[in-house]
Design a protein that fits this description.
The longest helix has 61 residues. The chain is of the alpha+beta class. Helices cover 30% and strands 21% of the residues. It starts with a strand and ends with a helix.
Length: 244
């Protein structure tokens, strides 16, 4: 069985293969998100604490959190579920997933180092891999560098240098900052707000004019009806007076 160990602090990961069944028994009957001591793997992992983050069985089916079994099951999955990506809106599909309980049928187990041990693991904890891509949203850039609203976010964008082997000049690339508040953006928001206000006032004035027209027509119709009733009553009175 292979163990894919990652260390978020340095951004590195390492794949090791363990063939000793006695060592692998320490993982059996454990679930996803459980923490395991790494002392049983050898002296190099003494003092390490790992968190089980995932895995795949020998046929490549991924483990799914919440499925309390050590076998493969078929579940009806929809948008928002793990181990499934929708292709159309409202689509649901029955997919095969592996339960969250570890067993001997797994081929790879993903582990995350929660606590570092006494010794460094070569290629995992002794080297630091810089982030290839930085944050793109303005609020996340401020949070990363602990900036205020008065600081210019554009000066703190993480740039990625492109080195070329040929005679062409090397250059750097930076992401386009999202949700950046600029004078153009403020002016656009003011214009949109003014347009919304004008539309609201126009619709309000039109509604007021429409209500006045409907009320006037209702009054005219009511007056016409009253006039007809009065005329009919006067005719009936004259006819009754003639008969007497």
């Amino acid at each position: 069985m292979k163990l894919n160990i990652s260390y978020p602090v340095t951004g590195c990961q390492k794949l090791i293969e363990v063939e000793d069944e006695h060592k692998l028994r320490n993982f059996y009957d454990k679930r996803l998100s459980h923490e395991v001591d790494g002392d049983f793997l050898g002296d190099d992992f003494k003092g390490y604490v790992f968190r089980i983050s995932g895995g795949n069985d020998k046929q490549g089916f991924p483990m799914k959190q919440g499925v309390l079994t050590n076998q493969r099951v078929r579940l009806l999955l929809s948008e928002g579920h793990s181990c499934y990506r929708t292709r159309r809106n409202g689509e649901r599909k029955r997919k095969s997933v592996r339960g969250c309980i570890i067993g001997p049928d797994l081929s790879v187990i993903s582990l995350v180092i929660v606590r570092k041990g006494e010794q460094d693991i070569p290629g995992l904890t002794d080297t630091t891999k810089p982030r290839r891509l930085g944050p793109k949203r303005a609020s996340k850039i401020r949070r990363l560098f602990n900036l205020d609203k008065t600081d210019d976010v554009r000066q703190y964008v993480i740039r990625r240098k492109i080195v070329r082997d040929d005679e062409k000049k090397s250059y750097s690339k930076a992401p386009k900052i999202q949700r950046l508040i600029t004078p153009q953006r403020i002016q656009r928001k003011k214009r949109e707000k003014a347009e919304r206000r004008a539309r609201w006032e126009k619709s309000r004035a039109e509604a007021k004019a429409y209500n006045e027209i409907t009320a006037r027509r209702a009054r005219e119709k009511r007056a016409e009806k009253q006039a007809k009733i009065a005329k009919r009553r006067s005719q009936s009175r004259r006819e009754s007076a003639k008969k007497q």
